[in-house]
Structure prediction request, 490 residues.
Amino acid sequence: MSGDLDPVDWAAFRAFAHRALDESLDAVAGIRERPPWRPIPAAVRAAIGDDPLPRAPSDPAGVYATFLEQIAPYAVDNRHPRFFGWVHGAGTPLGIVSALLAAGMNANVGGRDHAAVEVERRVLRWWCEVFGFPATASGILTTGSSMANLIGVLVARRRALGAAVRTDGVRAGRELVGYTSFEAHASIARAFELAGLGRTALRALPFERSGDLCDVALRASIKADREAGREPFIVIATAGSASTGAIDDLAAAGTVAHDEGLWFHVDGAFGALVQLAPGLRHLIAGIEHADSLAFDLHKWLHVPYDTGAVLVRDGALHAATFADHAPYLARMTRGAAAGEPWFTDFGPELSRGFRALGVWFAMKTFGLERFGALIEEQCALAQALGRRIADTPNLELLAPVTLNIVAFRYVPRSHTSPGELDDRRCDELNAEIVVELQERGLAVPSTTRIDGKLAIRLNVMNHRTTQADLDATLAAVLTVAEDVLESSSA
Ligand SMILES: *Cc1c(COP(=O)(O)O)cnc(C)c1O
Prediction:
């Protein structure tokens, strides 16, 4: 066996590649003809799971046929207009092309002197401009906001503990503590864990309430920690919580952080993007004072997974957190190893793909005003849906609709047979409604808990979602609820 890995028959391979591209586009164009989710049949699951180690070669067209049969039909299909689960972007046909082109170049954007690095720098400077960060700010594209939040925490830790943290680690005797809101994403606690600070070093406070409460609670907590000999180092606010879309009082949290000499990090995974929407921007006022800001491009910019970003106001400190110089990564002033600083100086990874191309294509092709308009439309759809739910018998809105997330539950008040349900049975009923909606292929909501109550949660983020999709989903909730009640009372 020998030879390179290029096709022997280029013409045949080209035909196969064109077919794969065409069918990827067809899958999006025909998205409404398929359900947003369908269960994986046991035989298909076994065929994937029990597939033996492939020692011998096979024809790519045959492998592709297996993909079409076993993989493509069984998506949690966030491309679909009635997919409302979690916080997922929908992607675009343009993203298929940009992903293809990026794969074609197969660039390693960890460093060195090439155009892909310049594109990532350009894209990050565009976002600095959007968020009012200075020219001295730095940034890096990441897999998502989980990594972006971790990087923010690590830069803040480097600031608090100095260069010694890189050689000596987090030593006993220095107890760093940080503050975030009750609504904070799980990745914040994980970042504390990964940074060696431990989860208990993170205090949850009511940032999302009025600015006064945030101010008082935060200042009191910082004071108490200092008196106990601990070292407050970071305040982390959320712009758009994953559960309900709630937005912390960023201005108040940032002011306290800076008054007290602490780092101010904002997790703006999706909510930061309302900066693009003139009618909503006021909701995240204060975001421009962040020392570091995490946000995703695979959510409200619909860039292919996985693409997020972190911006850091103090670019020198950001580099001081990660940069080191292994001899085999020596920088030159000319040639392919020029172009310092490299992106590996701004994060934990060396090899990195050309994520920036998808962002660059999307920003240039659609323009930011288009994204802002879409975000405004989706939030308006969600608001209207929230009002309708509040007015619908048997439905109860469980959280205010701040942005694009609607959380509610079905409570059969007027239903005669089961009568008033207790909370536990009500939770079971609503969980069952969600699963039934998914299994019947009608819609994909997810669930959350609000004040202990299980909520049906709709994230209205997909650029393909229309009023008709929401009407159909609400009607489906009511029908499915009746069916579930009927079968449970039968
Ligand atoms: C999605 C999300 C995250 C995590 O981002 P990933 O891109 O999934 O890593 C963090 N915070 C919030 C508020 C989110 O919505």
User: Anything to note?
Assistant: The chain has three domains: 10-33+38-74, 107-366, 369-489. The chain has a mean pLDDT of 95. Residues 10-33+38-74 form one domain.
